Input
Amino acid sequence: MPRGSTPLVLPMPGNGDLAGRLARRLSAEVGALSVRRFPDGESYVRLLSNVAGRSVALVCTLDRPDDKLVPLYFLAATARELGAARVGLVAPYLAYMRQDARFQPGEGVTSAQFARLLSSAVDWLVTVDPHLHRVATLAEIYQVPAVAVAAAPAIAAWVRAHVAEPLVVGPDSESEQWVRAVADAAGAPHVVLAKVRRGDRDVEVSVPDVARWRGRTAVLVDDIISTAGTMIEAVGHVRRAGLVDPVCVGVHAVFASDAYSELLAAGAARVVTCDTVLHASNAIALDEPVAAAVRPFLA
Output
């Protein structure tokens, strides 16, 4: 393939490791760019690689998204202006999926608003396990092709390799889709706890009868660990139910403030996450399935 048509993977700051692994799997070139702020706080961006006539994949996981969004938008627009054939986004963690309805008068439905903004900036999107609740698929709110990669197979492989007798546990009903998929792939039983949320950090969780599973290691699985309130409550319940100290597995390691240390202090034997958000707990790599989802867009 002529060099000028070789796909280009462009990592935004903090995304270099994943971008490098994706580029190797995609036989693509890792490009260079510059992002900084002017003294007044405005964003400056510059593409240091030639994008003319090339398929471009910007790599930017979108935890703490507000500071990333303006540079990302400018970079995508600049790549288009400089003649890129297509400009896509690899966002392993996709922000603004929580507010998918107007719960109080005057609220913004920010999941749809964010989707419209990203759809105006890029030609395609690849992400990992977006938090879909009242929205069934990304196609309902994104106007560009949007692929959601499932983390469950990689999580199940990790569980099989590291936990001898697992019981896969979902901390709430919303986690059931991930829990069932992980348990089925790992060949393990599963249960789902019931959750009542009274506020961002006020969560009560009830555990079903797990007496028949004593002797197994509880593996708590959820998509996003943010405040860790749900996980902490679930850890306490499964320990009081007589299960050994549980392993906590999250797809996205968002971890607000001291949530990670608080989860460990609550009695988790280990906290493991996928590499969608850079964190010390990352132990499950997803570059292979993400690259598989990206490959058709770079053809």
Q: What stands out?
A: The radius of gyration is 20 Å. The domain at 3-150+286-298 is CATH 3.40.50.2020 (Rossmann fold).
